Amino acid sequence: MYNQLLDTFKLVAEEGSFTKAAHKLYLTHTAVxxxxxxxxxxxxxxxxxxxxxxxxxxxxxxxxxxETLKLMNYSAEIVSRVQAASDIGTKEIRVGSSNLYPCHIFxxxxxxxxxxxxxxLLKVVTVNKDRYRLSQLGRDYDFxxxxxxxxxxxxxxxxxxxxxxxxxxxxxxxNHLANNxxxxxxxxxxxxxxxxxxGTSLINDQIRQTIIDKYPKIxxxxxxxxxxxxxxxxxxxxxxxxxxxxxxxxxxPEIKNIKLTDHFELPYGxxxxxxxxxxxxxxxxxxxxxxxxx
Length: 294
Hints:
- The longest helix is centred in the N-terminal third of the chain and has 28 residues, at 59-86.
- The chain folds into 3 domains: 5-80, Arc Repressor Mutant, subunit A (Orthogonal Bundle); 82-148 and 268-293, D-Maltodextrin-Binding Protein, domain 2; 163-267, D-Maltodextrin-Binding Protein, domain 2 (3-Layer(aba) Sandwich), CATH 3.40.190.
- Helix content is 38%, strand content 26%.
- The chain has 8 helices and 12 strands.
- The chain is of the alpha/beta class.
């Protein structure tokens, strides 16, 4: 639960003074000081450095101040969503979106069916860190649109497929192969190829095994299981080719996304928490509308 002592803490931190904060809170200096002491005792750490000129935040206090701002914003978001849901039965669903995991492909579908789901309102929310996008589900947004593979997701997450993406090759423009419009795995003999590390994606593991069995001269380089912009920066800076997807066509200016003639596909769609009832309700109605349209 939100602790109202944080309101006093935030104001003292911003005013740099117990007295100034007390004036704005219509409290006595002593009452404000007692509230801060109570919060410090609760957290078992000092939050302020006290001197004759006022107060300043300790390292722990700086962390708490940053997290308090986030908590206050999230609390306001909760109130907004509850109020929105109470208006004529409207329910708000939040879609995470970023440069690597954009929601526009789902929005194209939504434009076609939105009139059949008038009780739903979609809100687009920025995904701050692509690598940790799944950990933000249910907190910052209700679902995210993007590629999906079943290895790590089966127990905690649910997935509603919308379509499939073709695998491609992200080739640095400094590489002579960037002049091609299409490439096959056989063209990569003797070259480094960045591939998602083993054990995180069934389909990526199948491609890896195909390379090992049929194209042993390709030098496989393991990369983290969740691509983010640093993955593409590494591709561009090292000159290594990256196993990519067609949806990442213009992610990096120094990389050309080239069609892979070896046909591999990865499903894409909505990923959400199984425990998120709002997301489940939305997907249930979405599936019903889509089935009626076909």
